[in-house]
């Protein structure tokens, strides 16, 4: 047998092994995703059967209302992950978003308590939120710090500023805008629920229905190709962090309306935000974060917490389940990334 024929046979064998390995990874990822969806369906079915009033119209609308704050925050996190890439260690992430919301809520409530109107207070809260987002962008894009470390540092900055402003106390607030958000309704749906519906529609259209969204996915998925195509990668990555800050500010207004005050401890929402943003990849055909997937995961987490509440199960279990969901999503994306890399 000649050397050239032997070399050809070895090459064909290697290609077959690589193809088999890739197919195995894709099959494994598919099994894990289908298993996850089946588990979600089983959990919902259990709540339908055993949780009293779980499927009532009032309860479902209440879940949407309770999910509004988490949803707005999760959209900000999802935009950062899309623009920075979904790699868990080096990709886009904003660990400061919940603390940023707490700071914005403190600014908003403090200004209202000092007698300033809704307009100035809202503008100030949004300005602070976007400023914190810009600080994240400066650290990640300008200084080249890993997003995980940069946003962790900014998290502590925002949390410290909130405690300094409020002296770790509850700051009560009331205003016409808060009154509308608390008691307003349209077509039998509360204002908070409408806030989530409208915000979801805007984010889905912007990210999935415009050229801007397509460029954002290109920047996060293939940054070198995006640069070659003339897309300003630093601008888009920076924009996602500023957008995340804007989402934190919007969520702060919603949380002040729901609690009638700014309260310490907003950072506890971070796990839920991460779970919602990452879990959305399970509902994506290509295992990438999407706004629609994030909405589904937000509602799932809301239904999960609601079902536990109706069953008189401690809410602390929700945190454990969310942690398990994050591990599950990381496993799924690792499978998917491995299959793509071996093609």
Q: How would you portray this structure in words?
A:
The chain is mostly helical and 343 residues long. It has one domain: Orthogonal Bundle (ABC transporter involved in vitamin B12 uptake, BtuC). Helix content is 77%, strand content 2%. The strands form 2 sheets. It has a two-stranded antiparallel sheet. The longest helix has 48 residues, at 3-50. GO terms for molecular function: transmembrane transporter activity. Keywords: Cell inner membrane, Cell membrane, Membrane, Transmembrane, Transmembrane helix, Transport.
CATH architecture: Orthogonal Bundle
Spatial separation of the terminal alpha carbons: 30 Å
> Unreliable runs, pLDDT <50, ≥5 residues?
none
**Class, according to the CATH hierarchy?**
Mainly Alpha
Write down the CATH topology.
ABC transporter involved in vitamin B12 uptake, BtuC
- Write the H/E string, N to C: HHHHHHEHEEHHHHEHHH
Q: Nearest-angstrom radius of gyration? A: 22 Å
Share of residues in strands: under 5%
- The overall average pLDDT, rounded, is 83
**Oligomer classification:** single chain
Helix content range: over 70%
**Number of domains in the coordinates?**
1
**Count of helical regions:** 14
Categorize the overall geometry.
globular
Number of strands: 4
Q: SS-based structural class?
A: mainly alpha
- Main pleated-sheet profile: 2 strands, antiparallel
Strand order of the largest sheet: 1-4
Organism: Mesorhizobium atlanticum
Keywords: Cell inner membrane, Cell membrane, Membrane, Transmembrane, Transmembrane helix, Transport
Membrane topology: Multi-pass membrane protein
GO molecular function: transmembrane transporter activity
């Amino acid at each position: 047998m000649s050397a050239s024929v032997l070399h050809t046979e070895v090459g064909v064998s290697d290609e077959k092994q690589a193809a088999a390995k890739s197919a195995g990874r894709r099959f494994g990822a598919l099994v894990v995703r289908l298993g996850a969806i089946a588990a979600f369906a089983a959990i919902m079915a259990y709540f339908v059967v055993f949780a009293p009033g779980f499927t009532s119209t009032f309860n479902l609308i209440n879940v949407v209302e309770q999910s509004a704050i988490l949803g707005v925050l999760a959209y900000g996190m999802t935009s950062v992950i899309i623009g920075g890439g979904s790699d868990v260690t080096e990709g886009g992430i904003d660990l400061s978003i919940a603390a940023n919301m707490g700071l914005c809520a403190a600014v908003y409530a403090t200004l209202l308590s000092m007698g300033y109107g809704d307009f100035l207070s809202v503008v100030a809260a949004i300005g602070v939120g976007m400023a914190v987002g810009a600080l994240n962008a400066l650290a990640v894009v300008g200084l080249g710090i890993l997003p995980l470390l940069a946003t962790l540092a900014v998290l502590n900055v925002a949390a410290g500023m909130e405690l300094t402003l409020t002296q770790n106390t509850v700051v009560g607030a009331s205003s016409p805008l808060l009154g509308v958000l608390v008691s307003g309704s349209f077509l039998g749906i509360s204002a908070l629920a409408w806030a989530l519906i409208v915000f979801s529609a805007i984010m889905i259209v912007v990210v999935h229905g415009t050229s801007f969204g397509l460029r954002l996915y290109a920047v996060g998925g293939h940054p070198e190709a995006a640069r070659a195509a003339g897309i300003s990668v630093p601008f888009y990555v920076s924009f996602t962090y500023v957008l995340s800050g804007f989402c934190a500010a919007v969520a702060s207004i919603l949380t002040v309306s729901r609690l009638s005050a700014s309260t310490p401890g907003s950072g506890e929402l971070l796990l839920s935000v991460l779970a919602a943003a990452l879990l959305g990849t399970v509902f994506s055909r290509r295992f990438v974060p999407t706004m629609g997937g994030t909405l589904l995961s937000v509602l799932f987490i809301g239904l999960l917490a609601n079902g536990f509440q109706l069953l008189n199960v401690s809410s602390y279990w929700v945190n454990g389940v969310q942690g398990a969901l994050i591990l599950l999503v990381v496993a799924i994306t690792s499978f998917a990334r491995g299959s793509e890399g071996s093609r």
